[in-house]
Write a structure and sequence with these properties.
Distance between the termini: 44 Å
Number of strands: 6
Strand order of the largest sheet: 3-4-5-6
Strand content: 15-25%
Number of helices: 2
Radius of gyration: 18 Å
């Protein structure tokens, strides 16, 4: 998704760069995907009230994507601080859950 930060004016996408090597024989990435990864400027931070929330990597502001103009609205400082705490808590719980599943799989293999 192409975005523009209402706080600092940065533009870019929320398509994160691919961090792993592509498997041998895998088809090449489309040029449009490569361009989007090069313009990575917003981190996906979940949803708030059913609408996507992104973090601007330029200024750190929280941005809520809407249907109606203006398409991108800056979250208030209080709302953004509360949302970040909830998101980080969820992220830690999700990582712990995945690590527990991996440990269980490793124990079953032994």
């Amino acid at each position: 998704m192409k975005l523009k930060c209402p706080a600092c004016g940065a533009t870019g996408t929320d398509v994160a760069p691919y961090e792993h090597e592509r498997p041998e024989g895998a088809p090449p990435l489309p040029e449009s995907t490569k361009r989007d990864m090069d313009a990575y400027a917003f981190e996906v931070y979940g949803n708030l009230g059913g609408r996507p929330v992104r973090k601007c990597l330029n200024c750190g502001a929280g941005i809520r994507v809407t249907f109606l103009p203006p398409r991108f609205r800056k979250l208030s400082d209080e709302e953004w601080a509360e949302f970040k705490v909830r998101f980080e808590t969820w992220r830690e719980q999700d990582r712990a859950r995945v690590e527990a599943q991996v440990r269980n799989l490793n124990q079953e293999d032994q």
